DNA sequence: CTGGGGTCCT
DNA sequence: AGGACCC
């Protein structure tokens, strides 16, 4: 008998579904419970538990229960749970960490190469597992330790409902009935724990079907979690809900090695007390900008601690005018205000776009220096040598991502330097200025070099002109960070499938202006404009496409593979000519 | 306000 | 080329 949470109590609830939920009100920005259940999706969010630490456990012999941390420069970036229990924090200075935990073992983790290899394996296992459940599940890599999938297409299919939860920790938030059962496993064996979840109201019909779908999704999540563990040895935490925002919040509810199912109607109270800053997409700058209208309207519990509820009590027009101060939101502050407010009530319409395998769009290596330590150009050049070596290895490792490894080469290289700005040093909190120079890069030639010394020399020949372009005054330069990035990978420039981001790059910029025009003309959201454009291309747009010598995607996708490859090979040459054109100006 | 990355949007 | 965001 399946042993998740007690559904028997809900049979009585179903009787009353005709009028039990009639208290819907959309008046003052509060979403109705039925409204929250109206997103018919099932989104899965995956977090690898303290990822760097699990990597180190696999790569070296570390005693069980030994508190350890990963160090970069003079800080530690993460630590295992034994160390956290002793009070070791993320992004803490090494000294502070030792104070909290004198026996702490710190492992140097500045070179991320091994972590990236583990991350790739995990993602590829995750992706394959999802596609095996249903080939049309959209899967996307977030970062090295985060992944998402849209399980919606797989929900209606029959699955084994008799899932054995006994080896997994499953937490269900907002279940109907007054309680849900959480099964946990510790050294003494399997035990079950009752998690109190108050559900005053009974469920309406769409809530009911929502809970059925999320349940099914949680079964799939469990399967996938086990597969990741079996194939890679990594434990993960999963969040299951109706949209990416809530799925991500869900995965953070109970950490490590769990599946967290968050029903949308439970999210309201959760979000209300949540710091605004914790909403994905709301960063430091945004909170700063909103601070004015928050102070004016909200009853602040603590200074500089704002919750989603606080923002919801602010008139929308105030929010809009605050967001005008953020340069990035300047021309879209109404839309942005809506997006943030919607997030505060748990609504998020963003889609998960399949990433076609997840090959990185950019590869970069960087090194940082303490203020005042890197003041000479020749020292900088010496430091760059190390970056060439690391970038070279990364570029070759990336081929393991690529579906067509012959095209797994970049076409652009960029050098970025962060310097201390003396003028800003006194007043601003971030006295740094970041500048970059880029140029085209013959990645194909680079990838064909066999000898690693030649590879380094090749990168150097590409990077030094960029360094020269900075025209650094030789005496007083104070570099605090240097990075080299490569982008424009050819295996990413054409998509095999139909999607809104299907167009090749020059065409994409056409899309941008198209979106802007529709936005100014009408109050359509960018997403609407994008969808409208992708479903049917106007005659005008098709003509423009032909004129610019681009290939209609729907035609391209029907060509034989070898022809497609040839067509793709042609592109770099065209780009090269464009580059030359701009160089002459 | 730290580190070594990444994404997307002007 | 640069900024804001994410981990």
TrEMBL record:
For this UniProt entry, the molecular function terms from Gene Ontology, in alphabetical order, are: damaged DNA binding; DNA-directed DNA polymerase activity
Whether Transferase counts among this entry's keywords is yes
A GO biological-process term: translesion synthesis
> Keywords of this protein's UniProt record, alphabetized?
Nucleotidyltransferase, Transferase
Domain UmuC: start-end pairs: 43-283
- Segment Disordered: which positions? 1-32
Q: Which Pfam families match?
A: IMS
Q: Which PROSITE patterns did the record assign?
A: UMUC
Which SUPFAM superfamilies does this chain map to? DNA/RNA polymerases
Which portions of the chain have biased composition (kind: Acidic residues)? 15-29
Gene3D superfamilies for the chain: 3.30.70.270, 3.40.1170.60, DNA polymerase, Y-family, little finger domain
Is-annotated flag, keyword Transferase? yes
Q: Which domain of life is it from?
A: Eukaryota
Q: What is this protein called?
A: DNA polymerase iota
The lineage is: Eukaryota, Sar, Stramenopiles, Ochrophyta, Bacillariophyta
């Amino acid at each position: 008998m399946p042993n998740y949470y007690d559904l028997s109590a809900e049979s009585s609830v179903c009787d009353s579904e005709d009028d039990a939920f009639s208290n819907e009100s959309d008046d003052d920005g509060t979403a109705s419970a039925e409204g929250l259940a109206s997103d018919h999706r099932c989104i899965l969010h995956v977090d690898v538990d303290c990822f760097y630490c699990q990597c180190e456990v696999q790569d070296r012999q570390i005693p069980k229960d030994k508190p350890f941390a990963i160090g970069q420069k003079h800080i530690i970036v993460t630590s295992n749970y034994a160390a956290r229990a002793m009070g070791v924090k993320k992004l803490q200075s090494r000294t502070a960490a030792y104070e909290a935990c004198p026996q702490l073992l710190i492992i140097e983790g500045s070179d991320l190469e091994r972590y990236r290899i583990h991350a790739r394996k995990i993602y590829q296992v995750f992706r394959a597992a999802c596609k095996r459940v249903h080939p049309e599940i959209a899967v996307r890599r977030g970062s090295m330790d985060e992944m998402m999938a849209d399980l919606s297409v797989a929900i209606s299919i029959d699955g084994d409902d008799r899932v054995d939860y006994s080896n997994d920790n499953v937490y269900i938030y907002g279940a109907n009935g007054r309680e849900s059962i959480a099964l946990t496993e510790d050294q003494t064996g399997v035990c079950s724990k009752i998690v109190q979840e108050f559900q005053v109201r009974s469920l309406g019909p769409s809530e009911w079907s929502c809970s059925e779908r999320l349940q099914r999704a949680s079964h799939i999540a469990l399967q996938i979690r086990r597969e990741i563990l079996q194939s890679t040895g990594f434990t993960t935490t999963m969040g299951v809900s109706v949209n990416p925002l809530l799925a991500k919040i869900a995965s953070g509810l109970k950490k490590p090695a769990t599946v967290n199912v968050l029903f949308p109607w439970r999210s309201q109270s959760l979000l209300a007390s949540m710091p605004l800053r914790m909403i994905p997409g709301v960063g430091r700058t945004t909170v700063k900008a909103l601070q004015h209208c928050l102070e004016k309207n909200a009853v602040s519990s603590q200074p500089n601690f704002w919750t989603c509820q606080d923002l919801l009590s602010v008139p929308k027009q105030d929010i809009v005018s605050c967001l005008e101060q953020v340069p990035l939101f300047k021309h879209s502050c109404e839309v942005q205000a809506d997006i943030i407010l919607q997030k505060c009530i748990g609504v998020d319409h963003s889609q998960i776009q399949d990433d076609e395998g997840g090959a990185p769009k950019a590869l970069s290596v960087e090194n940082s220096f303490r203020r005042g330590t890197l003041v000479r150009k020749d020292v900088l050049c010496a430091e760059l040598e190390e970056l060439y070596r690391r970038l070279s290895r990364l570029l070759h490792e990336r081929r393991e991502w690529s579906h067509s490894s012959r095209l797994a080469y970049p076409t652009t290289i960029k050098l970025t330097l962060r310097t201390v700005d003396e003028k800003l040093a006194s007043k601003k909190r971030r006295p740094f200025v970041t500048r970059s120079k880029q140029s085209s890069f013959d990645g194909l030639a680079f990838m064909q070099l066999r000898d690693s010394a030649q590879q380094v020399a090749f990168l150097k020949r590409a990077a030094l002109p960029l360094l020269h372009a900075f025209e650094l005054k030789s005496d007083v330069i104070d570099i605090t960070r240097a990075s080299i990035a490569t982008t424009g990978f050819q295996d990413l420039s054409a998509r095999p499938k139909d999607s809104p981001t299907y167009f090749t790059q020059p065409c994409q910029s056409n899309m941008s202006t198209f979106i802007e025009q529709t936005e100014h003309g009408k109050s359509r959201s960018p997403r609407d404009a994008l969808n409208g454009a992708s479903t049917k291309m106007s005659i005008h747009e098709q003509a423009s496409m032909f004129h610019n010598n681009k290939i209609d995607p729907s035609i391209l996708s029907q060509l034989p593979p070898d022809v497609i490859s040839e067509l793709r090979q042609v592109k770099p040459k065209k780009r090269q000519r464009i580059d030359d054109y701009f160089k002459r100006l």
